[in-house]
Amino acid sequence: RVERLSSYSGVNFEVAWKNLNDPLFCPRARDVLWRVMHNALTVRAFLHEIHVDVRPQCVLCQAENETLDHLFLQCPVVKPVWTFVNKRLGGVIGQDVRLTWKEIFYLNFDRPLDPYKRVLYLTTSELIRAVWTSRNRAAFCFAKQTAQDIQALFLFRFRSRLKADFHRLPRDVFNAVWCRNNSLCDADSEELKLKI
User: Fold this and answer.
1) pTM of the full predicted structure?
2) Could you give the CA distance from residue 43 to residue 55 in angstroms, rounded to a whole number?
3) How far apart are the first and last CA of the chain?
4) Which residue did the predictor score with more confidence, 134 or 54?
5) Which end of the chain is more exposed for a tag (fewer CB within 10 A), N or C?
6) Per DSSP, what are the bridge partners of residue 193?
7) Nearest alpha-carbon partner for 16 in 143, 91, 117, 93
8) Rounded mean pLDDT of 149-169?
9) Max CA-CA distance within the chain?
10) DSSP per-residue string spanning 111-163
11) Which residues lie below 8 Å from residue 163, measured CB to CB, with a gap of 6+?
12) How far apart are CA 88 and CA 94, in angstroms?
């Protein structure tokens, strides 16, 4: 079991699995995050370590070895996107947001953010999915990816997600998840106004 294999201490896997099984999770984002939790994404440093003939450098920045931590948290191409998303989430919560690796990778929120946890993990999982997709475009389509490309992909998917949820969820559920402080969107009975 991954709980025994994890080198990260202090992770509450019961909370991680409960949050990951939220029915509001996008299935593709859930799949990528499940792979992150199991350390099963085929990042280049891992492939190089098991003697697959690839360079271990990150395909986005070409500077450091591509590990999970580097790709999703430390890569200079990805960092500006996290800054953008953290600022937007700060508007929802009403305070500065600096997410930790435990919160991003394992959906473990130690802070008293109860009403906001859902929007935090749904949003960050979409960003992780956008980073992974952009990484794969760079690796397999040889398309250079910038922070602006990753941010544009995230925003496209996130806006699409909000529009889909607006039409499929009961209005009270939608408002409880996405319309806090009206910083991401504003919804009345007929119309959705996106602010992101």
Assistant:
1) 0.89
2) 11
3) 39
4) 134
5) N
6) 186
7) 117
8) 95
9) 57
10) SS-GGGHHHHHHHHHHHHHHHHHHHHHHHHS-----HHHHHHHHHHHHHHHHH
11) 192, 194
12) 10
Task: Give the CA count within 13 Å in the CB-facing half-sphere of 141.
Answer: 9
**Beta-carbon neighbour count of residue 137 at 10 Å?**
18
| DSSP assigned state of 54 | S
The answer to whether residue 10 scores a pLDDT higher than 80 is: no
With residues binned 3-state (H G I as helix, E B as strand, rest as coil), the percentages for the chain, rounded to 5, are 60, 5, 35
Distance, in Å, from the CA atom of 98 to the CA atom of 107, rounded to the nearest integer, reads 14
User: Which tokens go with 147?
Assistant: 């922070």
Q: How far apart are CA 55 and CA 44, in angstroms?
A: 7
Average pLDDT over the chain, rounded to an integer:
87
pLDDT tens readout for residues 106-120: 888 766 556 788 888
Residue 103: which H helix or E strand, with range?
Answer: helix 101-106
